[in-house]
Fold each of these.
Amino acid sequence: MSHPEGAGPSRFGSRIGSGRRRLGVVVSAVVLVGTGGWFAGTQVQSPADAAASHRAPKAGPVTVSVVRQSLTASVVATGSVEFASPRPLSLAGPVGSGASAGADGEGAEQRVTKAPVAGTKIKEGDVLMTVNGRPVFALGGSVPMYRALGPGTSGDDVTQLQKALKRLGFDPGGTGGTYGQGTATAVADWYKSKGYDAQEPSPTDQQQLGSLEQAVSAAQETLLITNSGAGTASSSETGSSSTPAPQSSTDKQVHEIQVKSAQKALDLANGALSSFKATYGTKVPAGEVVFLPKLPARLDKVSVKTGDTPSAQIGTVTSSDVVVQAAVPGTDAQLLRHGMTARLTTADGKSAQGTVDVVADDSDSSSGTESAATAPSTTDDTNSASDSAADSTAAVQVRITVPEPGPLAGEAEAAVKVTIKVGASDGKVLTVPMAAIHTSSDGRARVKVERGDAVTDVHVTVGLSAAGIVEVKPDGGTLEAGERVVVGE
């Protein structure tokens, strides 16, 4: 039997090979199915197993390690940079000769001709401003200017003026408190050194002096005429120019009265002239000097401008000393003492060092003014954890002086971070979080220490605290760095 071309044994072998391949694929599929079934079987859980796998783990205490470290306690607050001793600035009276204008314009309506400049540093003898072209000087002294000072005046304000003149190099000839010719000369020389003329008598004063002098002359003349008629009578009365007429007792009494009257008139005229001359001369008008308790000072704010009438407050002057006013909670203020060091830092990183000056209740102090509580604080500095339990949280005003302000000198009204160190540990000490401290029924402090599967109470003495961390010392037990104490259940 013949086979067609291409048929025979070779085709048969091909069919056998193809069958084998199909068998391999089937076996592989069976293996894969079996493996998947096994894996799925391992992942299947009973309802009880599923519930157990979602159950929260058994609760246990929350613990942290005991740490040996150095501890520093600080009070941190926000403060404001200010200048010390602010006080209002005003003129005590007119600048120049007075309220009525003279022919030369002196005493015209008061107008600021050169305004003061805020931020100016004021030294003794400086011109703060000018009014009607006249100067307003600053001098050192605690007695405020309240009147014009001139010949004949006396008092503490005159002594203050004389001492200031002497400091400026113009000797008044004494500082006894009476304004004499030496003081007048010193005032004139001082004004001249500043480019001004001292206040000399006004035209009105000169006219009054002339009138008083004329009154004295007239009184003298009247007395002379009255005296020259004693014991004589005119020819018209006697009819003879050579024979004196006898005077009756009545005439004598009348004449004596006339003489006494003329003498009294002369005495009064001389008294008025002497009194006026005692105050006549070089003066310091009430508005031309401002006495300041401490110089140099700083003109902080200005309330007038050129052309204004300086009838009210013209500004505010402060000392050149820089202070920082801060408000801290009462619990922190209890830790502060007079003389503690404070670190002051601005927002842009500038820093300076200050000293705690006043710790006062809010009711005893006000922002920007001198505190009524100027004595050092006597608050007990108790650096213990019990301070944190104090129930006083009312703000307490704290003033910090800055002897060397450095970059803070130009930072008026700027906010600064205030950091005051209130205590430090003696080297490295054992510390735990405040949350780890518990109080026993007997009032003793203790910590719970986890040791193995048990928790043991260890009584401790609490020391310095800072930022939620507190120093502890074991009291009758042992406590080591690295051991874990319970802070929560």
Note: Residues 9-43 form the longest helix (35 residues).
Amino acid sequence: MVEGAYALLVFILATGILLTPPAIGMANNGDFERIMYQPEVGLAFNTTDPHLRYFNWVNRYFAVVGGGDARYPSSLALLLQPAIAVSQWLYGRPLFDLSVLAVFYTALLAVAAFFTLGALRRVLPPWATVFAALAGIVVYCDVAYLAYCRSLYSEAVSFVSFMFLLAFILVLLTRPVPRIWGLVAFGAAAVAFGTAKLQMAPLALVLGVFAVRLAHLRRDRLWRVASVLCAVVVVGASAACYTLTPRAFAYTNLYHSVFDGILVNPATRAQDLRALHLDPKLAVLAGTTYFDRHPIDVRGREFRERFYRKIGWTQIAGFYLTHPSRFIEAMQQSHRDALAMRPPYLGNYERSSGMPAKTLTHRFSVWSDTKRDWFPSSVWVLGGYWLVYGAVAVRGLRVHGFKSVDGLDSGPRLAEFALWVGTLAVIQFPIPYLAEGRNELIKHLFTYDLLWDTTLLISGTWAIAKIESAIRLRKRQRVIVSETTAG
């Protein structure tokens, strides 16, 4: 009943934050079309006015027009299909209401919360459990995360699937004998997370390794074969999505990585282009995005020969490896944008609300506001945090703070779980800037923020558990002393 009440609270709170009038969400920056035009989705805007379609306000209603011809593989398309079907049933016509998808997301978040709290109650002392439950609501129900749930951005799928990953990993690690259904659920969540968008591909490899580690939780052959098969499916699905993504997206990312990333310093642009073995005359494109107007035709054959034939991710990585100071500058910019959390150019309200264009809501934004205003903005402080976090996790999170769980001696423990989350965060941190430079960096750091915030929750829960354990130990010692004295 405790888990059920907690899940209900999460559902009511999250749904209320999104749908209490005036309802909130995230305006479209142009990414909606990637999903709308999928053959299995087939949505269209109800307006042709670009002022209404992009950046300024949330679009709530979409026409259902049948399959399109775009190819952008994402797990979001699979979730959209039942939401579209329910919406059409509710309205009795081919109309999709974005609020239906929002309720789908909040219901899934509630289910993930149910399993997560159940697992935490098995291993945490009471007050640490209370802290984790309440802090989880403050962090994960923050509008910086929830607003994406009323949009067609794949960040929302990343968010919800990651919540299920946390839930089912904890379920597997905290049961004396983990069950096959938990492994299957973990695999499904990992596939959804790894195929949500392109930048998840490196993380899918880490999830695959973790799935293999799960094979040590049980000694029977069926479990071990299932764990290895789970790893193959997770990595294979992510690799397939990456392979099937149109080359045009890779071209766009490469353009931003160079012209809105590496070439941000005007004093070194010509030198940087030579280091990349590119024509220094291309410096005229520095600071632009692929979608701007350019003095050079960036979509023509000549530019393809001058730029795309000579540049790739190997050259990008090589540049930062040979220019470490530039890498540190890039990571400093990334850290500042990660603290911001909320893109200021994407409005949260519908036009019917009467709010001005690009207005951001402050509804349930305590966590995101605190990070923006109070967290240290130095990347060196962040690096120190990761070193301390890793050292503590290696030493063992559950030594004093968590109750021991029988039957897990040969498998990954909660310390390894903490390391897994930290590893995902450290890997994800440089990817947005290296892949797309400053272009929409705040939005592209969404997954990193999610992982980083989870490590902060783990750290806080560990500290509370340690304190609670120390207090209990001291009380027991006093009882023993008093009994000995009385004897």
Note: Confidence is low (pLDDT under 50) at residues 397-412.
Amino acid sequence: MRPSDPARKDAPLLPPVAEAATWPGFVAHRPPEVLRRQGRLPRPVSPTLLAALVAGLDVAAVVLAGMVLQYFPLERGYPQPPLLAFFAALTVSLAGFAGGYSHAALFGGRRPIVAALGGLVSGGIGLATAALVLGAPITFRPGAALLWMGMAAPLLLAGRLGSAAAMQALPQYTRQRAVLVGSGPQAARFAATLTGRHDQGLALLGLVDNDPAAATSSGGLAYLGPVATLDGMIRRGEVDQVVLCMPWAEERRVRDLQRKLSDYPVDVTLAPDLMAYRHDGAEAPRLLRLADRPIRGWAAVVKAAEDYSLALVALALAAVPMALIALAVKLDSPGPVLFRQRRTGFNNRDFSVFKFRTMYHHAADHTVQRQVVAGDPRVTRVGAILRRTSLDELPQIFNVLKGEMSFIGPRPHAPGTRAGGRPFEEVMARYAARHRVKPGLTGLAQVRGWRGPTETEDKLIRRVESDLEYIETWSPWLDLVILVRTLLAVARMRNAC
């Protein structure tokens, strides 16, 4: 079918959508039937954690070989503990630079083994050469280095083969769940390459395409429905990667899909064109990365550690003030101390945010039909002080500890909130892109003054622009700057109501 055929145009990934309640099955890389839970694969372990486990095995191999070396009848030159740690770290670093810990490399093949052994040999030769150049052959003799490498190599190889076998035996926990988008022949050819040395570490759930006829030429891949089906699957957290399998000549369609999918918290890759499969002896087809999930990999580990550390420190410091605030709220007006409100969080999923109640109980606005403004008669006396100082948001520390929020990130909005009389989603086309990360207690938009009511569309646009800038440029340093500026803004009671 030609790219200009109107039947191939892709519908926007916006609700309402036709969600795939059950999946017909798996063909490529199909795990045992008993592993299917109502047609779903369980959420896999993070690729970063898997890579860390394999790197730990490599470190153990190098360190263990160095410790065994202590029992050999060498005259001198035994490796000391600092040297054991340095050589292990050097081996892992060099292997990592060679791609030895990429997700696909963890499932075996020649490349990761070459990378691991290459890191070991390069590191050992480098250490031995440095010892000779610096005049320290007594501390670390070249012969000891060669013996060390000789004992570490089989341990390293055994660890790699064992970990690869374990990951292949547990596909439901180790493989990234992938959905193919595009033409049947292209998808079928790509799926056929994901075997043996071409393993990409993917569990193929099936194919989506607006042309149902694509299923007949997809080589038996499960047809999940039209492209709009992806919206429901991604929102339910059932997809880790979307692979675009279509002729590269369909440039407009590829670009449209890339633009739509880049607003979702999934990896988007482009499979090779059909020409790339014509050489049987060629290297495994490489997936071209079009969009990555923000704050992924080790950055996600750092972000999670930062969130829980800050939340625990904040809770320890604010426990007594929060108790006093709760007492003041209770004495000021009848009703509960805490106010729960539905907000849109990560991946467009709703959750209940905690706040100290600042309005009279009978005037509580759970759906934000009318935003609070300065001098609002619905706000209590204590509530006015809490809102002005932002202390009403302290209970959201518990949302952070529950994993629903980050300490710093885009502020969560209530579903249906309007700006200038229009829903947020209608004001900005990329509004949903701010939900690719967890919402935060404070964020870049807030420290820039873009908080409070959104009477005009311009206020929302400025806020969302700051949120997207934060997502695309995140770093621990940026979080520190936002945290300091937030504390200063709270002390000055700026832009709150």
Note: Residues 346 and 435 are 5 Å apart (CA to CA).
Amino acid sequence: MVAYALAMIGVAAGWFGPIQILLPEHAARLAGEGGKESLLALVTAVGAGASLIANPLWGVLSDRMGARRRPIFVAGTVVGVAGLLVLSAADSRALMMTGWVLVQVGLNGPLAALAAMIGDRVPERQRGTVGALFGVAQIVGVVLGTALAVAVGQGAPGYIAVAVAVPALGAALLLLRDGHDGRGVARVAAGPTNWSVLLRPGAQFAWAWVIRFLLNLVNALVLVYLFYYLSDRVGVTDAATWVLILTVVNVLFAGLFGFAGGVLSDRWQRRKVFVVAAGVILAAGTTLMALFPVVAVVIVASVLVGAGWGAYVAVDMAVITHVLPDAETRATMLGVANIAGTLPQLLAPVVAAPIVTRLGGYPALYLLTAGFAVLALLCLPRLKALS
């Protein structure tokens, strides 16, 4: 599990270091102050569109290989690192977009592999704890990617540092024995994909997917323009440093609530109460960001957003793996489930850009974000498969 967690930290660093600091600075450098929001929205939206297709395809490939996960992990990592190196040299909008598409397509490979390993190897009674560990690892990766971007500098040095960190943190996973380890689910035989499960995934999987999508959309909307929110709305002088500070605050509370929540959810064998807590706390935090754009309140809001996201991360994988249709299509359906995490990246800039520039600014954006958290709560009673 230590090897898996380190690998997930690397994947998250490769994703969120660019999203939080490197890409916003890159967009401002190429497009100027007047066009930075639009360019960032375009680049992240196209990348997320590629991610939307890539994740289930990696899952299908893994299932067709007889649930062999490590080749998928390696291949995706190579493509993702190549994309980061392209970004380090990107001096045009087209090259910036190409690099980010490669990052998104590539890093979906290790993400799909790591998610499937939980279903393969972890008994259901322990999936809250282990899923929370993976969720916390993702959050730690956000901090690592952001810290690297601040420490080594924006532009090429930041991208190169992240490109080194991703495979370095994933290396330990390659030393582990692949397949059944005696505690989880044995490898299934390779064979043709059961495409009908994609068309009829079941109502409970569909409702779990919608809830995951809405809460991931909340998180994406908080992050997508955080750099610009701090500089343009809150008025801080060093937005990159403040992004790092708020990310650290967010991670501390997300990690605390995530890991504690995962352990408690396994002990109690209850998942819904943690989703309720997540929705309420996320709505409160984003409402504060909307109404009180001052540093002290934004720090409090970061605490709440971190705690709320941690409460959801505590049970996210346990919820999704509980409602999977069957073991033979585990990676395929987890790829579909992961669309609920990547699609918000596509929609967040599309939704946020017109609101920030023309339709009410940051107050309207973060009030809408709070509304999505409430909507997830309204969907929760339909998820009858869970206690």
Note: The chain has one domain: 2-174+201-382.
